[in-house]
Each structure stands twice: as C-alpha cells, then as structure tokens.
Specification:
CATH superfamily of the largest domain: HUPs
Largest sheet: 7 strands, parallel
CATH topology of the largest domain: Rossmann fold
Shape: elongated
Number of helices: 8
Mean pLDDT: 91
Strand content: 25-35%
Strand order of the largest sheet: 7-11-6-1-4-5-12
Helix content: 25-40%
Structural class: alpha/beta
Order of helices and strands: EEEHEHEHEHEEEEEEEHEHEHEEH
Low-confidence stretches: 323-328
Number of strands: 17
CATH class of the largest domain: Alpha Beta
Distance between the termini: 65 Å
Oligomer: single chain
Length: about 325
C-alpha cells in the first residue's frame, strides 16, 4: 500500500497553513498510490490539533512528549526516523519552511531516502512519481524523478497548493509511544522572537497590494498605500522596490522573497518577471494595473487594467473609499 505521510507543522497554538495545503495534495497522491493519507503530529498537549487533522486524514499518528512542545529538529529527527523505519510510507511530505529545511535533509540522509526539495507539483508518468521544481529563478520548471527506492521524501513550497474543501474524513487518532530517551544534546529551544510592532507577515494576508518599479520613486508609494488601506490589504513590493530600500525585505514577493496566496492580489506597476510571478501566481484573484499591454503580469492576471497607474490608482481608491465622484 502506498501510504503518504504529512508532517503537521504547528506553532504557538496554531496549525501552519502549509499543513492543510499538503493534506489536500497528500490525499490525492495517496489515492493514486493506492494507500492512505496519514498525518504525523509531534508535540505536547496537541489533542485539539489531532481532532482537526482527523477530519483531513485517514489516520493521525500522534507522538505526545513534553520534549516536543516546541520544534527541535534534533528531536523531531529521532522520532520521525523511528516512525518512518517502522511504518514505511511510500512518500513523506514536509513543508519547505524554516523548520522543514532544517529537518528534511538530515532525516533523509540518516534513512538514506531520496529527497526532493521545494516542490511545487507532483505528477505520475507510467506509474512513476515525478516532482515539479522551479529552476533559474522560476524561468523554467523541471520534472524530476526519484531514484528507485521503497520510500521517498519531499518538501513542499508554501502556497504551492490550495487548501482544498474535500469531503471530511473520520480519521482514527493513533497514539504512538515516543522513542525519546533523553533531551536534545546539540540544539535547545530558547524562545520565540516576535516580529516588531508594525511589521506584517504578508504570507498570511488575505489582500495584498504590491507595487513595482512603475511607481518611479519612493514618494509615490503614498498613493498605493492609500489603495491598500481602502481595500483592507497590506502593502508589498517586487524586488526592485525592495532593493531600492523603499519597502523592508519582509514585504518582498517573489522567488527570492516570499510566496503568497491571498484572496486578492493587486499588482501596481509590476511588469511581471518570472521571479515575481513565482511568488504570487497562485493567488485566488489577481488584478494587474500596468500601462504596457504586453507586460507578462497580464498572463496570470484575472483582471487587467491597461493605463497609467497614476490615474487609475487614485480613482480606484476614491471609489473604494466611497468618495469617488464619477468624474474624470
């Protein structure tokens, strides 16, 4: 049976969005492999998470241990190495997050498993599983096959897959005895460092207004900020805007920045380089404003406005703010 394991990532009382994204894709892959989808949950006092995951997976394997209360790749590796060696899933999915990038390579090396990282898709050709990865800053996509092995591992890019509304399952919650016999030796959790007041995690935003080099100069950001306020969104930018120092690095969308998947993405003065498109093309609705009708951003846009952003954005802001006069 080709079971698929999904490592549930959680932090400070919440399941990370990437977990739900992987569960939807994992369920599809498990069906194709003729197996079951199993969520793997490590932690302490995680009963609520287990119940939530049980509606999305055929089985939830819970390893309860005080030492797993906070993520520690050394301890996670010990637990997962034991679990994967014993239960032998065909495929294990781990989020391509800071935690996953810390954990997956070392775990795969210990178990001598083929590992594909930063995957954005999965396909089958003649019953052979292939993964899809981006290369050259998103300019190309490659299909990669694993070497022959009874087990495989992959890390999945955040926002690569939608959170699917599937028929709920009644998965069994299975308690697995912790194999840990001692505390971690090399790594120790110290504390969470919160983002400074005023900073925004754009990966969690439902509405994003992003600005590109078409804004021309920093002083013109104000008109885009007003649009973001009018739609209840957050302000982000493409790489040229970040490199110029007009917005902080944590607001960059793209291959070298952050991958986002908001309900609404408004691209203002962004031409749409492959590097930028890689970070936002899976947004639910994309509205592009650009005076160049041939700008690549229009290839992924749901709606496009071909005009000067300095005319369109103020008018759109006024209309959304309820004060648009209808003139001009």
């Amino acid at each position: 049976m080709g079971d698929v394991f999904v490592l549930a990532e959680h932090r400070r009382g919440e399941l990370r969005e990437v977990t739900l994204e992987m569960l939807g894709k994992g369920r599809e892959l498990a069906g194709r492999l003729g197996g079951h989808l199993k969520a793997v949950l490590l932690g302490h006092n995680v009963d609520a998470f287990a119940r939530e995951l049980a509606s999305q997976a055929h089985e939830v394997l819970v390893v309860e241990d005080k030492r797993l209360e906070n993520f520690n790749s050394e301890l996670y590796q010990k637990v997962l190495a034991s679990l994967l060696a014993e239960r032998k899933p065909t495929l294990t999915l781990i989020g391509h997050t800071a935690c996953g990038m810390d954990l997956a390579p070392s775990l795969a090396a210990e178990l001598n498993l083929p590992l594909a990282t930063d995957c954005i898709g999965f396909e089958f050709e003649d019953d052979r599983l292939l993964v899809i990865r981006e290369r050259y800053l998103g300019k190309l996509q490659s299909k990669v096959s694993f070497k022959d092995s009874p087990q495989y591992m992959a890390t999945v890019r955040q926002a690569a897959f939608p959170v699917k509304e599937l028929e709920p399952l009644s998965g069994q919650i299975v308690a697995v005895e912790s194999p840990l016999a001692e505390e971690a030796r090399r790594k120790k959790f110290i504390e969470y460092v919160e983002a400074a007041v005023g900073e925004v995690d754009i990966t969690q935003a439902e509405i994003i207004v992003a600005v590109g080099r078409g804004i021309k100069e920093k002083e013109n950001l104000e008109i885009v900020e007003k649009l973001a306020q009018a739609v209840g969104g957050v302000l982000a930018g493409s790489r040229p805007v970040i490199d110029a120092g007009w917005l902080p690095p944590d607001r960059q969308v793209g291959q070298s920045g952050k991958t986002v998947r908001p309900r609404l993405y408004i691209a203002v003065g962004i031409s749409g380089s492959s590097q930028h498109l890689a970070g936002m093309k899976n947004s639910d609705i994309i509205v592009a404003i650009n005076k160049d009708p041939h700008a690549p951003i229009f290839n992924v846009a749901t709606y496009g406005i071909v005009d000067d952003l300095f005319k369109v954005v103020p008018a759109l802001t006024e209309q959304l703010s309820g004060s648009y006069s209808g003139q001009g």
